[in-house]
Amino acid sequence: MKIILVGASGTIGNAVGQALSERHEILRVGRSGGDIRADIADPDALRAMFRTAAPYDAVVCAAGLAAFGELDRLTDEEFQLGLSSKLMGQVNLVRLGLSGITDAGSFTLTSGVLSQEPIPGSSAISMVNAGVEAFVRAAAWRCRAGCASTWCRRRGFAKRSRPWDGTHRRVCRPRPLRRHMWTAWKAG
Ligand SMILES: NC(=O)c1ccc[n+]([C@@H]2O[C@H](COP(=O)([O-])OP(=O)(O)OC[C@H]3O[C@@H](n4cnc5c(N)ncnc54)[C@H](OP(=O)(O)O)[C@@H]3O)[C@@H](O)[C@H]2O)c1
Known about the structure:
Elements: E1 2-6, H1 11-21, E2 25-30, E3 36-37, H2 43-53, E4 56-61, H3 76-97, E5 101-110, H4 123-142, E6 148-152, E7 158-162, E8 167-172, E9 181-185
Parallel strand pairs: 1-2, 1-4, 2-3, 4-5, 6-8
Antiparallel strand pairs: 5-9, 6-9, 7-8
Bound molecules: NADP nicotinamide-adenine-dinucleotide phosphate.
The site of NADP nicotinamide-adenine-dinucleotide phosphate (NAP) has 27 residues, from helix 1 and helix 3.
């Protein structure tokens, strides 16, 4: 498969790239390095990236910025950073990437455990993480029958089916990295 890996030089992206590169072609993406340079907060850069890379079988995102800080101290710009980068950056990866993805291709986005287990100072990050998760749930239902979404969970893999509309959801969350990864498949 040809896989676009955004955030390939990071802690998670590097591990994902190593795990996938033996069996797949990886196009590494980052703002400052990689096969393609693009900022996910810039929709025009994403359009150009997808035009260059198409067709591709999967898009995996392990990138996205959000600010940490006390609720009464976070600035407008710090809230906007998370909205533009981690939330809308990943939403736009799906929106703008749909046209070039192959049948049965997949998008994998990254949120974080702070969506469900907030700590002091995490209000902006918890907000965008929860937004990413809600987006994937909704975007997956929007796909044609046969699409699915995945979320990584600590003890293996839970699978839930909705036979009435032909869709399935699978969930897994690897705890050591304390993040969630969500995947939506495009129906073939
Ligand atoms: N590590 C954890 O334990 C953990 C826990 C929960 C959630 N997460 C989430 O997982 C994601 C990755 O975390 P990480 O720890 O692996 O981060 P990281 O080590 O800081 O790496 C981030 C990667 O993304 C790229 N990047 C950052 N902003 C970008 C942008 N706007 N457009 C394109 N590429 C961008 C960086 O490269 P350039 O600088 O070259 O762009 C780098 O390759 C983040 O969304 C983070 O919130 C991580």
